[in-house]
Design brief:
- The chain is an alpha+beta fold and about 180 residues long.
- The chain has one helix spanning about 110-180, and strands spanning about 1-5, 10-20, 25-30, 40-45, 55-60, 65-70, 75-80, 90-95.
- The mean pLDDT is about 90.
- The longest helix has about 70 residues, at about 110-180.
- It is about 40% helix and about 30% strand.
- The N and C termini lie far apart (about 105 Å).
- The strands form two sheets. Strands 1-8-3-6 form a four-stranded antiparallel sheet, with no helix packed on it. Strands 2-7-4-5 form a four-stranded antiparallel sheet, with no helix packed on it.
- A hairpin with a 7-residue loop joins strand 4 and strand 5.
Amino acid sequence: RGFIVEVPARSSECFVLTLEKGASFSGNYELLTQDFDLELVEVRVLGPAPHHTSHYTSSGLEEGSFTAEADDDGDQTICLYNKDNSETVTLGFGFRADLDISSEAATEENVKSMTDFANELTQGLDMLADHQEFMRVREDLHRGTVAGTNDKLMWWSVAEAAVLSAMALWQVMYIRTFFETKRSI
């Protein structure tokens, strides 16, 4: 699960994950603000007090990822720093405890339930792919209808303009002959 946070100028935002000793955790981050000086953004992942073991530190990178193991029980912290004097920076990040998969996880019951779940996912993805294909065909049909309608409308407008021009020309000629005086010799 990802989060997006805005870090004001000259400040930091920290997020905590409470873990037991030996538990593994991972995360990633990405700078979402365009044209921002990368040297002004720093990301640190620290272990619990009192040692505050540094698990990961980066400065000047647009994106990064890390994996570590908790050295002690307690709060593992990710801190996002903005060293700029005036501009707020937006960062997207994920910070999560990794699953502990033991040898007992692969029981026959678990495998069957995972297989059932995988089949449901596959069916859902197939239905989604079918739905997208239907929508694509439907869009093509509608695009054809709209193009045909636009063509008919254009030719109707051209014909209407020709008729209006002919009517205007006829009216000018008719009025001209109406006001013309006949000369007698």
